[in-house]
Design goal:
The structure holds two protein chains of two kinds.
Chain A: H1 2-15, H2 17-45, E1 57-60, E2 63-81, E3 84-105, H3 107-113, E4 122-136, E5 139-148, H4 152-155, E6 160-163, H5 168-172, E7 177-181, H6 182-189, E8 199-202, E9 205-213, E10 227-230, H7 236-240, E11 245-246, E12 249-253, H8 257-273, E13 284-287, H9 292-300, H10 308-344, H11 346-354, H12 359-395, H13 407-433, H14 437-445
Parallel strand pairs in A: 5-10, 7-9
Antiparallel strand pairs in A: 1-12, 2-3, 2-13, 3-11, 4-5, 4-12, 6-9, 7-10, 8-9
Helix pairs in contact in A: 1-12, 2-10, 2-12, 2-13, 9-10, 10-13, 11-14, 12-13
Chain B: E1 2-12, E2 17-28, E3 33-37, H1 44-51, E4 59-64, E5 67-68, H2 75-84, E6 85-88, H3 100-109, H4 115-128, H5 144-156, E7 162-166, H6 174-191, E8 194-198, H7 202-206, E9 210-215, E10 218-219
Parallel strand pairs in B: 3-8, 3-9, 6-7, 7-8
Antiparallel strand pairs in B: 1-2, 1-4, 4-5, 9-10
Classes of the chains: A alpha+beta, B alpha/beta.
The complex binds adenosine-5'-triphosphate and magnesium ion.
């Protein structure tokens, strides 16, 4: 019986080329978008090096200082009571923020106050925002640099194709050594395989290359750079001045959810205790930590006051709505298409029932047709996604992000296909299977 | 074979009530060729559909081979229709997406018949209506007369005891109509198939064993 349904479905789909083509286009396009989207989400939020420990990380990407003054206002109410005027005055005290400054943390702040954060089992300070211009054979190259301490290489698990990360000792000694990305090594030395041991000139100083890291799957600015240098080789001004704000970020590693909460609380606590050098300028310091998602959300949605929680909520809301839109619209469209297609076939269904088909077999037949159609659309969508993925990766549209298929995405897309096929087929099929034979046959004659 | 006892059919819409059949009692015997005539809208199709159990009467009793029908949606009734009845419609109702032979096989799909057996039976049925050479064609490639012959092949492929034909020649010219009529007469004579046919053609009706005339839902002859 099943093979009958199969054959029948293939025959019907093969003969109704126009309808089949339209449905296939809709299904394959939707599935392609879904597959690409999940590949993108996987690249951005999946567990990939160097962010395998991302779920245990708390970032302090910026610090905020405010000058808050108290504003006092008096209000006087008067009313007549028993023939006398009664005056009632209230004093209102309001906090008013008169100026705000938000920036990365200064090394002074990190070094003096953030080394004993509760809940942190490891931590790293790094400065991700420096660029260098390099000249090689008359050509100018611009390198993004990250200054990092030794713990950086423990928290972010980069994989090295050649060489090694630098040690605490090398950082403390301000050794002039560098780690390059594969692409940077290629651009500068022509090849990444023989770069270790060679020297790189940055701002007139020679740095020995000690390691090459493999191409990253995602391009977060705090891990993606052309060159990584020991933190202590940074301009001494950046380390020695006693500014609370500066160019540094801190990342703390917890080993539990509670640890992460402790870190957040500890940072807020510390912000209140740290003495402020110039209270007339700023009299309040805020240190708000965040996880990766919050960081991402605030980057995409500029919400004031570093409100990570709000940013996360809005971000998730927008993302889920978009996803729903992407899935819901085509599903509704498909159901609609199916309803009209099945209605059009009411005469056929009436005839089948007159010749002895019962409701169950009509239902099976129609759902079968739809599942085959969606699976076919799924295959096409998958191929399309594959091509687009290749083009996207090849053209570097997404910068350093590398989109990849994996088995999870594959299984999900097959499940999505089946769900699509059954949901969009079941409703019209059910209605049709219950149709009154005489009415079904008559409808055709009008 | 088919027995209708005091059958009525009333269509109830929001504003009006139409009595399509009014208290009809008919008995069709096995091997009989019966024709039904009457002006348009008098209830001929309704009567035929009730005899074929694809429509439910508002009141009265339908008995087929001694069994009365209670549930019109049961699997058992579907199986009964599949094995004992064959339908021929005025506008053919072939499935355009299926080839001629696949169309003819349709009733057998709902039986436990092997694919090879189905092919063989369908080919035989097509031979009976003289269309063996058109097996691989699609309905869109056939003339009206050929389409109706395919529909007859589909109605007889399962060797049903009863064939119900609603104006089978209504959409055909007189030559083709006569051909179709000959096939039906032959079926009735050679295989003993019981046939009930609605027609507007007096000469065709005269060729059958018995003629029933309807007027406004009531039997007048
Ligand atoms: N679904 C329906 N709803 C309401 N009235 C209906 C319905 N089907 C049929 N009727 C009415 O029932 C009456 C009988 O219809 P029927 O189709 O049986 O006539 P007929 O004799 O076959 O006519 P024709 O020769 O035109 O085919 C008609 O008056 C028709 O309008
Ligand atoms: Mg009629």
């Amino acid at each position: 019986m099943i093979s009958n349904y199969l054959k029948l479905a293939i025959k019907v789909l093969g003969r109704r080329t126009f309808f089949t083509a339209i449905s296939l286009f809709g299904i394959s396009f939707t599935l392609m978008v879904l597959i690409l989207l999940s590949a993108f989400i996987d690249a951005e939020f999946g567990n990939h090096q160097p962010l395998t420990q991302k779920d245990d990380m708390v970032f302090l990407e910026r610090a905020m200082m405010k000058l808050i003054v108290q504003d006092t206002t008096w209000e006087v109410d008067s009313l007549r009571l028993d023939g006398n005027m009664v005056y009632d005055s209230t004093m209102q005290v309001k906090d008013i923020t008169t100026s705000t400054s938000t920036a990365s943390a200064g090394y002074y702040l990190c070094n003096n106050y953030l080394r004993d954060v509760t809940g942190a089992v490891n931590y790293s300070f790094y400065a991700p925002s420096r660029t260098f211009d390099l000249f090689i054979e008359g050509k100018k190259l611009t390198f993004n640099a990250i200054y990092a301490d030794a713990a950086y290489w423990q928290i972010f698990d980069f994989s090295f194709s050649h060489g090694r990360p630098f040690t605490k000792q090398e950082n403390d000694n301000a050794s002039q050594i560098a780690i390059l990305s594969t692409q940077a090594a290629r651009n500068y030395f022509g090849s990444s395989s023989n770069a270790v041991g060679k020297f790189l000139e940055l701002d007139g100083k020679q740095f020995e290359v000690i390691g090459i890291i493999k191409k990253l799957k995602n391009a977060k600015p705090f891990v993606s750079a052309d060159v990584y240098l020991p933190l202590q080789t940074i301009n001494p001004m950046a380390i020695n001045q006693d500014n609370l704000l500066g160019t540094f970020e801190a990342v703390f590693l917890a080993n539990s959810e509670k640890g992460k909460a402790d870190i957040l609380a500890s940072l807020e606590q510390k912000a209140k205790q740290i003495p402020l050098p110039n209270p007339e300028e700023y009299n309040n310091l805020y240190l708000k930590g965040t996880d990766l998602l919050g960081r991402y959300a605030l980057y995409v949605l500029p919400i004031s006051d570093n409100n990570y929680d709000k940013a996360k909520k809005v971000f998730l809301l927008i993302t889920i709505s978009l996803l729903l839109l992407f899935v819901l619209l085509p599903t509704l469209n498909l159901i609609n298409l199916n309803v009209s297609r099945v209605m059009e076939r009411s005469a056929e269904i009436g005839v089948r029932k007159a010749f002895g088909a019962h409701s169950g077999s009509i239902l099976m037949q129609l759902v079968f047709e739809n599942v085959i159609l969606t699976l076919l659309g799924g295959i096409i969508g998958y191929l399309l996604a594959y091509i687009v993925l290749y083009l996207v990766n090849d053209s570097n549209i997404l910068g350093e992000i590398v989109l990849q298929f994996n088995t999870t995405i594959f299984i999900y897309s097959i499940l999505i296909c089946l769900a699509f096929g059954i949901i969009s087929g079941l409703l019209p099929a059910y209605r049709m299977s219950k149709i009154h034979i005489v009415n079904a046959i008559k409808q055709h004659q009008i | 074979m088919i027995q209708l006892k005091e059958v009525s059919k009333v269509y109830q819409t929001k504003t009006i009530e139409t009595t399509a059949l009014n208290n009809i009692s008919i008995q069709v015997s096995s091997g009989e060729f019966l024709s039904i005539m009457g002006p348009s809208g008098c209830g001929k199709s309704t009567l035929l559909n009730i005899m074929g159990m694809i429509d439910e009467p508002s009141s009265g009793k339908v008995t087929i081979s001694g069994q009365s029908i209670s549930n019109y949606h049961s699997k058992a009734l579907a199986r009964f229709r599949n094995q004992k009845l064959g339908f021929i419609f005025q506008s053919f109702h072939l499935i355009n997406e299926l080839s001629v032979i696949d169309n003819v096989e349709l009733p057998l799909i709902y039986r436990k018949t092997s694919a090879r057996e189905r092919r063989k039976m369908a080919a035989e049925a097509l031979e009976q209506v003289g269309l063996k050479n058109r097996m691989k064609h699609f309905p869109g490639q056939l003339s009206g007369g050929q389409k109706q012959r395919v529909a007859i092949a589909r109605a007889i492929v399962g060797k049903p005891g009863i064939i119900l034909a609603d104006e089978p020649t209504g959409n055909l010219d007189s030559v083709m109509g006569a051909e179709i009529m000959d096939i039906l007469l032959k079926l009735n004579k050679e295989l003993g198939t019981t046939i009930v046919m609605v027609t507007h053609d007096e000469t065709m009706a005269q060729k059958t064993h018995r003629l029933i005339r309807l007027f406004d839902g009531s039997q007048v002859q």
